[in-house]
Amino acid sequence: MKVDKVRGRVLALMVLLAPCGVLAYPAPVPDPSLPASTVPPAIQDLRRKMNDADVNALTFRDMDQLFTTRTVARSGPVWELPRSDHALDFTYSFKGQRYTADQFLERTYTNALLILKDGRIVSEVYRNNTDAATRLMGWSMTKSITSILIGCAVQEGRIKSLDDRITQYLPELKGGGYDGATIRQVLQMRSGVDYEERYDFANPGIAARNHELALVENVVRFADAARTVKRAHAPGEVWQYKTLDTAVLGWLLERVSGGSTIAAYAAQRLWEPLGAERDGFFIMDGPPGVGREFNGAGFNATPRDYARIGLMMLQDGQANGHQIVPAAWVRESTKATGGPGPGYGYQWWIPNDHAFQAIGLQGQYIFVDRATRTVVVKLSYFPPENQEAHDETAAFMAAASAWRPR
């Protein structure tokens, strides 16, 4: 395997396991060039600790207690999901051992698990004081939701072409690292900007600093780092996972939606026609009237509503009697164009030639298998940097997909 492919896989795994803060870290020395944070010190401290293994089973389900939020409102008829409940009567193999599906729940730090077959709920499990109404943090699954919204904007003609340069819509980015990159290249994580997704807070680089200032202290907007970021590679040349790319796509949505917000556009074009049963919400990178939705990793919803997203994608963009995005967009966005292993599409991970998935920090998954018409949603609280739980989940997903409830 070539060195660049190895490095790409290592970086991607680092991102899957820890894209937004690995362990609690002390408050940095204030930057005198920036305004003082108005976030209470105790809340800042909790935000720095929110991913830690001793609290994340709870923080991942209570993000509205830690952050200012913006609602993605549901409206209209709920898309009812029929049921055909079955015991999880299958096993899976991992590292030479065979385990039951019930053992999987505890072994991989599960808060909620939901499995659909042919559009029917066949299993729904809630743990650790969660239930069907609990809204859990999706982390980087939010990137895949952003991709859906970009598809909606293309369908509506708000974005004329994915091959337009991003600066055509966001002239604020002219002269910086994003100048010359197309929307398609940003969707593919091929922008070429110099933004290594590394969160070593003892030796903070651009990503760690942006996380602290935007999401902990709320003294800058997360996407604004795109104004000054440098270029590392020619656009389109190198795949490199960057939450900043998705933040730029959110800024683009904000711009083309006519001065609306990402949350309002998501409610109109996704959440209402999807028939969601509860409001979703984004965490914000600042206070009301100032902050933006953290659309790179900040969406929260119930397991059933995440499952509705997966089922909509399985059904080529159809949900609740609505064509939310064109079937061609679903196929295009879930086709590998780079990345480690089988690949990465337009903000979707591609595990094999018949499946795709949204994956979020520390164990959040919407897994879709076209071949078996399976959707699996798993919301978890992996300890930071736990690669084994991620690998075991992949083994479980394959077994759950092959499972035929009787």
UniProtKB/TrEMBL annotation:
Keywords: Hydrolase, Signal. GO terms for molecular function: hydrolase activity. The keyword ATP-binding does not apply. InterPro entries: Beta-lactam-related, Beta-lactam/transpept-like, Diverse_Enzym_Activities. Residues 1-24 form the signal peptide. Residues 112-393 form the Beta-lactamase-related domain. This is 6-aminohexanoate hydrolase. The lineage of its organism: Bacteria, Pseudomonadati, Pseudomonadota, Alphaproteobacteria, Rhodospirillales.
